[in-house]
Every structure is written in structure tokens, then in C-alpha cells.
Amino acid sequence: MCYIILNIYSTSANQAPVNQPHHLLRLNVGFLIGQSIGYHREFTFDHPQITLAGELEITDFQGLVRMDRTQQGLVMQAKFQGNTNLQCVRCLGDTVVPLKTEFDELYAFSSRSVTESGLLLPEDGHIDLEPILREYFTLEIPIQPLCRPDCKGLCAECGENLNERVCEHHT
Known about the structure:
four-stranded antiparallel beta sheet, 37% strand, 9% helix
């Protein structure tokens, strides 16, 4: 007599734990691998708030990703937008800055087809967009964000916000 015992609770190194929460920016594209060349699928995103890499908070996050099956791999065409809170460089006040990004990337099936971005389709067929999205959004953040184009800044002598009041140093 032969007994087969299955351990349904164990996980291997390539398999995510069963109780791991669903990630908002993780796409299951494994089904596209078996499709014919030219097949595509669109994924939409609409979230009130997300945090990228634990530090970049994006509100009113929206996006559209189109994945096309090609001979070399999966071509991703992406458009994302959202807002982030930054500090104005002149008055040091909080300001909401809109961010928009568009990009195309190839997730190659093999290392022979890899482009300069070096993206390979993971073996489990899941693509995590968080690292690449954080990179593209970071490139869109202005170096010197302003709360408004005519921001008057702070008084160099007393530190008064000149957008709110005029101090005795500035007449």
C-alpha cells in the first residue's frame, strides 16, 4: 500500500505564500505567453492613494497598461498619472504637484531578446510594476517645486511668508 501525503501549506522559493496580500501593481501576464503574436490585453488602475517603495505617496492614482504579445516578449505601453505632496522651495509650504508619465518597455522571454532596460519576464508570469513606476514618477518630480508660479517666498530677515503677509522688511 502506498500513501501520498501532500503538504498544501508549504511554499517553495518561487511561490508566494498563500496568505500574502494582493499587491495593487502586480500583473498576472502568464496567460499572454501562450497567445499568438499580436494578442494584447489592457489593465486599468484607479486608486485613491498608493505608496511606491514605502516613500513616494501618490494620490488620485490612475493608469492604463497595454501588454502586447510579440516574438521577443511582452511589450508594455503605460500611461500613469497622479498627485504627490511636496514642499515649495520658496515659501516652504506644502503643495500638490501633478505627475504624469508614459513609457514603453519590453519584458523579454529570454536573455537574447533583452533590451538596454534589462527586463526579463519572470518565470511565475507576474510583473511587479512598482519599481519601474517609481523610477518613472521620480523622473517627473520637479527639482524646484513651487506652490504657484508667482510665489513670493520667505523674508530673508524674519522668515515671514510673503504670500500671506508683508513684513516691515519688505514695503
